[in-house]
Amino acid sequence: MKKPQTQPTKLTISYDEYLIKFRKLLVSLKLNNSTQREYVLKLFFECQEHLTADEVVLKLKQKFNITIGIATVYRILSFLEQMKIIKSLTLENETSKKYEINLKTHHDHLICNECGDVIEFYDSELERIQELIAQEKGFVLTNHHMILYGICEKCRR
Ligand SMILES: [Zn+2]
Ligand SMILES: [Zn+2]
User: Which residue ranges form the domains of the chain, and what is each CATH number?
Assistant: First the structure.
């Protein structure tokens, strides 16, 4: 079997461009602008990592020097997820979730069961095979998200 050709993922829109859309969305939902919400959004744009709610609290403090309580962060995360602006990844033990911006090019994930580290990958061959499997089963694919759970290189040492 040939080695998979994985490609790096990238954002499909900048924060400034997206912010305009985001504010319009809030108006259409009759919601007030909230600086806190915008900071959380900005954080996901700036550090395109996979963050737990606790990490969001921490990074907001580190990056922007603002303090938002964990309960508020959870509320904001759940709103952003509902709006499909971020998405969550469930760890195999299901005790915690990680969130990431949902505005990146399509990719799938490897997640370490020990340290929770998340690695992104995209492989066109794998994508094609999934299409074929779906077709064979009479399925029209609308979306997919693959997570491979295991132990990462660091934790195996
Ligand atoms: Zn995929
Ligand atoms: Zn990702």
Answer: 15-156 (3.30.1490.190)
